[in-house]
């Protein structure tokens, strides 16, 4: 039997029934990813397996470095084969890391290869995959369609002209590709020089000059409307923590003016500005009928030497350890009092915050929408088996897993869709275990099967209304 066999990760007969009868064939709504709209629009053809698999994959880059592989084989100028060879040598050492499962799931599901990747099979697998990648069936759009994806939401800056999304809309390929609003750069006043350059870019996109905080809000509203006109229904924010400091509008204008003059804001000023900015963005989302996502708890670019050499998003981020509860509750309470709380998904990167985030979300449900506020799937360092199981347990114990909108890829890779399969197998294993242990009634298999289908697909479809 091959390692990735039909009952992989399914440890009971009930789990196997749930997966094969209810989860396996459900379509995918990928409501948060980092795929390049340009690469989708241009229907990218990958040069080889190294470009497809190792380019931009900071999960693999961290593992390679941990295995003693020099940077020249990771982000450096070594050949594609040499880089792939180092990855193949590393894969056996990733056992019990999710990369071991993901690697072999992707080999099996994307390429139909059930061999284990290692030094002895590296050349054979490299050449076999490269031959397939040279065919139309393995171009970018075909890879997305291969996994029955219905919707892809990319991650886009407010200044983006969305021309690639518009090109896709003019030349549809059977998958809806929608922009998602990610305004993090519009909030990043801690570096005045970079921020002023960004404001110029944003102002050009909005066809106006931005010389005040009020102008910034006007420009963002114009861009928000433009995104909505291009199908956007979802925002996303990457935060260290929640922000809800007391402030006056005049203070925010003064802070903004200081930054425009190139004056470095104090930490207290940054927190006040972020508090105002996030509130105003949340109001905008509510008024537009969008859903919003908050990814909280990353500490980024920690290896300053390597950040200077290879830049951001290269594998030098980690889990932060900040308090979230007080500010988060104040933030959502203010929106609730104002009647401006949109549908909201919360994600945390530190597993110690699972219960905090779950109870925070469920404090502000109001009976208008099933799962209006909810705890999102395991994110980044937590989108592995243990992280997923802990997320499901926290959501089950403190909320309603039945209303959960399920998995997303959060990936830059066209071949990450087997992660949805991985999630669904774990989901079915969790429910199967509970049924077999008598914690859930076997007589309710039909209802539980429907619940599995809902978490896999239906809940996201109903929640986002793409």
Tell me what the structure shows.
The protein has 466 residues and is of the alpha/beta class. It has helices at residues 13-23, 37-41, 49-54, 58-66, 80-90, 98-111, 122-133, 140-146, 163-170, 192-206, 213-229, 249-260, 267-288, 304-310, 325-337, 354-363, 385-398, 418-436, 445-464, and strands spanning 28-30, 149-153, 176-178, 234-239, 291-296, 298-299, 318-319, 343-348, 373-375. It has a 4-stranded parallel sheet, with helices on one face. It has a 3-stranded parallel sheet with strand order 1-2-3. Helix 1 packs across helix 18, helix 1 packs across helix 19 and helix 16 (354-363) runs parallel beside helix 17 (385-398). The protein is globular. It starts with 12 loop residues before the first helix and ends with a helix. The model has no long low-confidence stretch (mean pLDDT 97).
Supply database-style keywords.
466 residues; three-stranded parallel sheet; 19 helices; alpha/beta
Brief summary:
By secondary structure, the protein is of the alpha/beta class.
DSSP helical segment count = 19
Fraction of residues in helix: 40-55%
Report the C-alpha radius of gyration, rounded.
23 Å
Structural class: alpha/beta
Give the DSSP E fraction (strand runs of 2 or more residues): 5-15%
Which stretches are low in confidence, meaning pLDDT under 50 for 5 or more residues running? none
Mean pLDDT: 97
Q: What series of H and E elements makes up the topology?
A: HEHHHHHHHEHEHHEHHEEHEHEHEHHH
N/C terminus separation:
40 Å
Number of strands: 9
**Shape, per Cα inertia axes:** globular
Q: Could you give the order of strands across the largest sheet?
A: 4-5-8-9
């Amino acid at each position: 039997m091959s390692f990735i066999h039909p009952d992989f990760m399914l440890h009971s007969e009930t789990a196997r029934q749930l997966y094969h009868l209810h989860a396996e064939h459900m379509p995918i709504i990928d409501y948060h990813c980092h795929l390049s709209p340009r690469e989708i629009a241009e229907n990218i053809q990958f040069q080889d397996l190294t470009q497809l698999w190792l380019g931009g994959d900071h999960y693999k880059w961290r593992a390679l470095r941990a295995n003693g592989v020099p940077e020249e084989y990771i982000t450096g100028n070594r050949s594609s084969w040499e880089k792939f060879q180092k990855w193949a040598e590393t894969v056996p050492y990733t056992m019990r890391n999710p990369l071991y499962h993901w690697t072999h799931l992707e080999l099996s599901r994307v390429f139909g290869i059930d061999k284990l990747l290692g030094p002895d099979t590296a050349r054979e697998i490299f050449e076999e995959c490269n031959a397939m990648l040279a065919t139309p069936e393995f171009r970018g759009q075909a890879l997305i369609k291969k996994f029955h994806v219905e919707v892809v939401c990319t991650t886009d800056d407010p200044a983006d002209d969305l021309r690639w999304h518009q090109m896709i809309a003019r030349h549809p390929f059977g998958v809806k590709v929608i922009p998602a609003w990610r305004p993090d750069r519009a909030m990043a006043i801690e570096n005045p020089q970079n921020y002023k350059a960004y404001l110029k870019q944003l102002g050009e996109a909005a066809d106006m000059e931005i010389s005040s905080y009020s102008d910034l809000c006007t420009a963002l509203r114009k861009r928000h409307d433009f995104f909505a006109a291009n199908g956007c229904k979802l925002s996303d924010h990457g935060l260290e923590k929640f922000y809800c400091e007391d402030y006056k509008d005049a203070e925010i204008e003064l802070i903004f003016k200081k930054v425009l003059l190139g004056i470095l804001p104090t930490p207290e000023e940054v927190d006040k500005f972020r508090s105002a900015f996030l509130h105003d963005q949340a109001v905008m989302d509510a008024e537009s009928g969008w859903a919003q996502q908050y990814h909280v708890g990353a500490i980024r670019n920690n290896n300053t030497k390597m950040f200077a050499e290879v830049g951001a998003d290269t594998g030098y981020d980690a889990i932060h350890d900040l308090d979230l509860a007080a500010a988060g509750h104040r933030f959502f309470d203010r929106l609730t009092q104002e009647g401006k709380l949109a549908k909201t998904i919360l994600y945390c990167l530190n597993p110690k915050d699972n219960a905090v985030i779950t109870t925070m979300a469920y404090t502000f449900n109001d009976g208008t929408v099933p799962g209006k506020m909810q705890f999102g799937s395991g994110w980044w360092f937590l989108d592995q088996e243990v992280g997923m199981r802990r997320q499901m347990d926290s959501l089950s114990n403190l909320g309603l897993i039945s209303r959960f909108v399920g998995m997303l890829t959060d990936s830059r890779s066209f071949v990450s869709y087997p992660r949805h399969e991985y999630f669904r197998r774990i989901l079915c294993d969790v429910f199967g275990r509970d049924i077999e242990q008598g914690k859930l009634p076997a007589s309710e298999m039909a209802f539980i099967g429907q619940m599995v289908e809902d978490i896999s697909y239906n809940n996201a479809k109903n929640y986002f209304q793409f």
